[in-house]
Amino acid sequence: MSDYALHVNFGTDEEPLRLTLTDYRPSDAETARQALERRIEHAIELDAPVVFSAATDDDPQAGVPIDPHRVTGVDLVALTSDES
User: Fold this and answer.
1) What is the pLDDT of residue 59?
2) How far is CA 19 from CA 5, 15, 47, 59, 79, in A?
3) Closest CA relative to residue 49, chosen from 40, 59, 38
4) Which among 8, 24, 31, 43 counts the fewest CB atoms within 10 Å?
């Protein structure tokens, strides 16, 4: 088990939104990344103005609004002990 983060990217001029995933297996962290990508893609299809972040139900950042139309990608990043 390791700590990971999902970085929601908005382009080169803006810092990515970081959603922390604590004590995840690598496969579960990748599943969380894919799930967030699908939620964002679905919001774009519905022309929804906002999607609310929640990598997991116990995510302390759950509820952070994300404008799906500005998202350029979602990256999975392994965190070191200094970053956790």
Assistant:
1) 56
2) 5, 13, 23, 8, 11
3) 40
4) 31
